[in-house]
User: What shape does this take?
Amino acid sequence: MIAVVDALALSWFASCWLGYAHLCDRSARGEQALIRKLLAYREQWMRETARRDNRIEDLALVNNLMRGVAFFASTTILILGGLLTVLGCGERAIEITAELPLARQTTRELWELKLFLLIAIFFYGFFKFTWSLRQ
Assistant: This one.
């Protein structure tokens, strides 16, 4: 049985996630906002790059962007490994968190449900970062 506080937290998280995705995809007038603006900036940058002879700065910028995305992708892999490890030793993890001052006592099933949600989020994040690296 999921407690009311946990259900509220899950619904708040889902509404923030979906609301942010909707906000990034569309503006108040219903047209594409953020994605279209970024595409326009990229096209302008590519036109400026084609006009310049020395493209070392552009290469350094792209290299920096790729390194940052690769860092975040590898970090999500480490987090996924840690979450799967915690999932494997659930009873001990529940005991440890029960000793924290503001932590609530929870059942093993609810604990695993929360861990599976975190695993799904970081799994999604890993593939998003990897996809953006390939772009």
About this structure: The helical segments are 4-25, 34-51, 56-88, 90-98, 108-134.
